[in-house]
């Protein structure tokens, strides 16, 4: 398969180095084109022509021809519209496009009169002077040449899997036309797949599988964004999103405010709607909906376990193998997996030879839908017996909701940290193998490639157990680690905080209150909400900052763990968090020296987390809100609720996306394993905010200036121009150390590079800021630049 794909790619590339073109955007009546000829839109951005593509038939390498539109200047062929996706023209016949005598657009196999595709039946042509025109937006229109407002047909009305800026997705209520996108069948075949994304008449976008199972809904439009995509509001400085719902139409559309940006919205072959930008060398996914790959209905097919962010994210369940491995390679997994050994199904023979089917337990699982509840099974064993009695039963679970069993195919099974245990029915033979292997197999199935996650988890458990033992006594001051964490009683904390009366703030997972210990030490008490989530965060936090100490990390004094109450006690930081100082126009302004000290302190704290402890700890949520300031404005990193541990020998961890929009490194969104460089990226974003005194993503604003100058990109450009003082917070009135400003700008710009390999380590950042090394001039971060649509980068 691989060599074939390479051959195809080679062909496509050579085909698409523009040899010559009609160099026109218009095809008039009676004219035709074939072969390498093409129309190019007036702005040179789009091309229309024929292109070849392989099919999914792995035993033959015939090429098919399609009429389509692609980005003329993007070297990687990206069809944004295809006329005949489900009716390819098989080579060697070569196709021809004409504007026929009746004014319709028609694709013929050359030399024959076989019509492969045409606009007949869709276009109502009432003029004898039609022309086909490729517009600057990438829309192919068929219209009257004498009256340009008489459009008979347009490609935007018949989208394939891509929505271009300016296109509409939704209904024309008058004509009944519904425009929606349909995914392609697999990664090398453009024909229609099973996923579709539609705008319904109620103004809510929905994605569905095989036109039946709805697996995602956009929620209601609130004038600026859909309720399930709040990140759209952050993007409003880059794009203009619109929902129109009136008597004639209901549709969604968007425009990108920068002319230069190349973006598309694609319903991916795996059922996710992805907003992608061209970042110089490849497409980069900015946003995916649904956020987690495993939330796409049946994405891995039956009898699989899906793990979002793992690579590969689909794995067969134990005792199963891929039904068609060739299809898996080209991202078509709808056939899923099949049993290696058929079930015995309680046949008499089986009973005699002890070969009845057995169950295999899989922990941490998001259960499949549509289980049958068995209310009268009152134990796990009875539940298992009910399942064994029916040959079509394939799995059961016995949890707090009692017994449920599943028949036939198991769909939509995914790993889930908070998930349940499911028992999978397998032929006894599958489970005969050495018992000692059991745990390893479970892990292999359930966690797939994310071995590093596991290492972190085991470590947590070990620490947790060890701590638990110690904490059984009330006070553990002066233990050999010198950590000295106090286990508080709830009543003590109630007293210390005057019944939680003085609230300092509300963060993720809980609220923070001020209190006093008897020796008049001020404390901050964090009370975690939500039983399950709170527990996770509590453990993460105690485990990470409970075992480490550094001047630039907030100190954990103690905790309380009574019943389902979870509280954490920290030293109190009189100056609050960094955001309350840098984003405020009133009150005292932090002077440059203090800002520089904060930048350096945070870098040291992070450097210690990444390199200084026995285990590398990735904080995962660096932002100004999580940087606290003590009386002398020494910064302390706080809020370790999302931190990830990495074992000594691991540098990467696969984990669900965590963090805060605006500070998220690109690799989070692309779903690959992350390293400590995600913290470096977030740190870079924070540095920029420290310099400018403004948030990087401006609140929704209509002024043109704000839009054109996305601050992080502006910094990169101004650095190159040597004009950095204009970047500094105006409130400082130029009272800064120019050399330091330049250094901080350079460091920040290196930290926010697209590729983690281009970013410095925190240890290097510390060296730069201490002036031990001098950073080189950073390149403009391509991705941010592409999104912001800055001027094309000058040879960088
Ligand atoms: C592939 O295509 C060839 C010719 O079109 C056909 O004979 C063959 O059966 C196909 N193979 C598969 C697996 O579909
Ligand atoms: C075509 O357009 C004409 C005039 O605009 C209209 O009368 C006719 O009903 C249309 N036909 C179809 C099939 O839409
Ligand atoms: C097109 O129709 C107009 C009248 O509607 C007529 O004057 C003209 O000659 C026609 N042109 C052709 C090429 O048939
Ligand atoms: C062009 O077409 C539109 C809509 O069909 C019509 O309203 C308008 O009068 C036409 N203009 C001319 C100059 O024919
Ligand atoms: C999709 O739905 C149709 C009926 O609507 C059904 O015949 C077909 O088998 C379904 N496809 C799959 C893959 O389940
Ligand atoms: C956004 O789009 C709508 C409709 O397309 C338009 O009316 C509005 O002026 C646009 N806003 C901006 C800021 O471009
Ligand atoms: C299987 O064996 C069990 C005891 O080992 C017995 O109770 C049961 O009736 C047998 N079932 C069949 C179908 O023979
Ligand atoms: C599964 O359950 C959902 C509701 O939970 C229902 O809408 C759907 O029709 C069910 N599907 C089948 C195949 O029974
Ligand atoms: C549960 O009830 C059904 C009929 O309602 C019966 O056939 C089955 O044996 C019962 N199962 C148990 C475990 O009691
Ligand atoms: C097994 O369960 C299926 C689905 O509930 C049911 O249709 C079938 O009749 C059952 N078979 C037996 C032997 O109970």
Short description:
With 796 residues, this protein is α+β, with helices and mostly antiparallel strands. It has 18 helices and 45 strands. It has a six-stranded antiparallel sheet with strand order 31-33-32-35-30-34. The protein has a six-stranded mixed sheet with strand order 36-40-41-39-38-37, with helices on both faces.
How would you describe this structure to a colleague?
Residues 24-155 form the Bulb-type lectin domain. One of its GO terms (biological process) is recognition of pollen. Its EC number is 2.7.11.1. InterPro entries: Bulb-type_lectin_dom, Bulb-type_lectin_dom_sf, Kinase-like_dom_sf, Pan_app, Prot_kinase_dom, Protein_kinase_ATP_BS, S_locus_glycoprot_dom, Ser/Thr_kinase_AS. This is Receptor-like serine/threonine-protein kinase. With 796 residues, the protein is α+β, with helices and mostly antiparallel strands. It folds into five domains: 5-13 and 20-291, Bulb-type lectin domain (Agglutinin, subunit A); 304-426, 3-Layer(bba) Sandwich (Hepatocyte Growth Factor); 432-465; 472-571, Phosphorylase Kinase, domain 1; 579-787, Transferase(Phosphotransferase) domain 1 (Transferase(Phosphotransferase), domain 1, Orthogonal Bundle), CATH 1.10.510. Helix content is 23%, strand content 28%. It has 18 helices and 45 strands. The strands form twelve sheets. The chain has a six-stranded antiparallel sheet. It has a six-stranded mixed sheet with strand order 36-40-41-39-38-37, with helices on both faces. Helix 11 packs antiparallel against helix 17 (762-769), helix 13 (677-692) packs antiparallel against helix 16 and helix 15 (711-721) packs across helix 16 (738-751). The longest helix is centred in the middle third of the chain and has 21 residues, at 451-471.
């Amino acid at each position: 398969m691989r060599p074939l794909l390479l051959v195809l790619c080679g062909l496509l590339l050579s085909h698409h180095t523009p040899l010559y073109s009609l160099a026109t955007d218009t095809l008039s009546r009676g004219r035709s084109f074939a072969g390498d000829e093409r129309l190019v839109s007036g702005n040179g951005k789009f091309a229309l022509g024929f292109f070849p593509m392989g099919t999914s038939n792995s035993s033959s390498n015939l090429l098919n021809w399609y009429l389509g539109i692609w980005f003329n200047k993007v070297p990687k062929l990206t069809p944004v519209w295809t006329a005949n996706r489900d009716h390819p023209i098989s080579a060697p016949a070569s196709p021809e496009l004409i504007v026929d005598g009746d004014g319709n657009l028609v694709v013929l196999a050359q030399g024959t009169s076989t019509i492969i595709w045409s606009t007949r039946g869709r276009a109502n042509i009432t003029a004898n002077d039609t022309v086909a025109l490729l517009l600057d937006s990438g829309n192919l229109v068929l219209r009257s040449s004498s009256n340009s407002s008489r459009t008979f047909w347009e490609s935007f009305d018949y989208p394939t899997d891509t929505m271009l800026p300016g296109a509409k997705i939704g209904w024309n209520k008058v004509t009944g036309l519904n425009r929606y996108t349909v995914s392609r069948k697999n990664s090398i075949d453009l024909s229609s797949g099973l996923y579709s994304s539609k705008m319904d008449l109620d103004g809510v976008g929905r994605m569905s599988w095989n036109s039946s199972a709805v697996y995602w809904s956009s929620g209601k439009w609130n004038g600026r964004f859909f309720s399930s995509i709040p990140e759209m509001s952050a993007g409003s400085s880059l794009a203009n999103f619109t929902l129109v719902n009136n008597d004639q139409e209901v549709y969604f559309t968007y425009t990108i405010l920068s002319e230069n940006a190349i973006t598309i919205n694609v319903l991916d072959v795996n059922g996710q709607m992805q907003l992608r930008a061209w970042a110089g060398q490849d497409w980069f996914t900015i946003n995916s909906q649904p956020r987690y790959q495993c939330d796409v209905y049946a994405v891995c097919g039956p009898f699989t376990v899906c793990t979002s962010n793992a690579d590969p994210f689909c794995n067969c369940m134990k005792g199963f193998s891929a039904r068609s491995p060739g299809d898996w390679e080209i991202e078509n997994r709808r056939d899923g997996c099949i049993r290696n050994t058929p079930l015995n199904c309680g046949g008499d023979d089986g009973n005699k030879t002890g070969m009845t089917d057995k169950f295999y337990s899989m922990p941490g699982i998001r259960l499949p839908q549509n289980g049958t509840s068995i209310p009268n099974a009152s134990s796990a064993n009875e539940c298992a017996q009910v399942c064994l009695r029916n040959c079509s039963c394939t799995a059961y679970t016995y949890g707090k909701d009692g017994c449920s069993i599943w028949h036939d195919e198991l769909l939509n099974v995914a790993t889930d940290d908070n998930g349940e245990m499911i028992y999978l029915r397998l032929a006894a033979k599958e489970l005969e193998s050495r018992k000692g292997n059991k745990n390893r197999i479970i892990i292999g199935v359930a966690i797939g490639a994310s071995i590093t996650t596991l290492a972190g988890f085991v470590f947590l458990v070990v620490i947790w157990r060890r701590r638990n033992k110690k904490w059984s006594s009330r006070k553990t001051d002066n233990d050999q680690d010198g950590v000295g964490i106090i286990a508080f009683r709830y009543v003590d904390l109630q007293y210390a905080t005057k019944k939680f009366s003085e609230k300092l703030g509300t963060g993720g997972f809980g609220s923070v209150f001020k209190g006093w210990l008897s020796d008049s030490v001020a404390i901050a008490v964090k009370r975690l909400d939500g039983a399950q989530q709170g527990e996770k965060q509590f453990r993460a936090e105690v485990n990470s900052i409970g075992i480490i100490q550094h001047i630039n990390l907030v100190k954990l004094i103690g905790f309380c763990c009574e019943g389902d109450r979870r509280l954490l006690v920290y030293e109190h930081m009189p100056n609050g968090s960094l955001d309350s100082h840098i984003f405020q126009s009133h009150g005292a302004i932090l002077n440059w020296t203090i800002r520089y000290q904060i930048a350096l302190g945070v870098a040291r704290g992070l450097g210690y987390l990444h390199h200084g402890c026995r285990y590398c700890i990735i904080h995962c949520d660096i932002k100004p809100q999580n940087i606290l300031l003590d009386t002398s404005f020494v910064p302390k990193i706080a809020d370790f609720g999302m931190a990830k541990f990495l074992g000594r020998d691991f540098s990467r961890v696969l984990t669900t996306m965590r963090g805060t929009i605006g500070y998220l490194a690109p690799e989070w969104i692309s779903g690959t394993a992350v390293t400590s460089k995600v913290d470096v990226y977030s740190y870079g974003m924070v540095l920029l905010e420290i310099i400018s005194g403004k948030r990087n993503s401006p609140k929704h604003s209509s002024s043109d200036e704000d839009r054109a100058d996305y601050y992080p990109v502006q910094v990169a450009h101004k650095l190159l121009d040597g004009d950095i003082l204009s970047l500094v917070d105006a409130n400082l009135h130029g009272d800064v150390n120019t050399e330091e400003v330049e250094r901080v700008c350079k460091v920040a710009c290196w930290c926010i590079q697209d590729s983690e390999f281009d970013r410095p380590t925190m240890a290097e950042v510390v060296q730069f800021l201490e002036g031990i090394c001098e950073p080189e001039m950073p390149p403009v971060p391509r991705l941010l630049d592409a999104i912001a649509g800055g001027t094309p980068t000058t040879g960088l």
